[in-house]
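Just scan my protein:

——
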Amino acid sequence: MIDPPGYFLWDFAGVDGLQAALNLFGEKVGHLAPFQSLETSFNAHACSVLRLAERNFRVALSRDHGLDLAIADMGLNLWVKLSNPLKASAPIRQAASGCERIATLVISEQWGQTCLPRLGTTQPIHRLENLPLHCAVPARIEQKSVLVWHHSWLGHPRFDLHTAQANAQTIAQAITVEIQSHHYPTDAGRGTTAAATRGHHPTL
């Protein structure tokens, strides 16, 4: 599925990026290495937090709970933006520009573990094979940059692929062809053979 509903991605970074994360999510977020994540809560709602770099974080929320407003109230030195602004609720709040807009492709855990290592390439320090839960790796699929994030969303492990909006259809098509050509078992209980978002691809 491309750009599933109820999925808001916030990025924040800067000199005080780590301090903001600690204020929001507690000390445990400071123990994450880059490309590790955890499940926690914000404003009493479940969320996932991914550490991208020393002071750079990505937060996935099921609703627009005003993460940027909470950060602004801290008065710290950092920036924050909604990275999938098609879901922005208020135009005056900062959002990624068109060239930076992130699309999310969701793949079931079973298909992610089997087909992504066949499709994706990584730098030598990273691996797609047997990617642990709560970890992410930068990769390339069809020569397009993508961040592959294996995490638990609302209690269900899955793979999220974050890429530029312009790349989403190309990557989705490549995954669809890979799944169909190797006859991977379907996950009928979770509806993974239903019609795709926008009607172009099987649900991934």
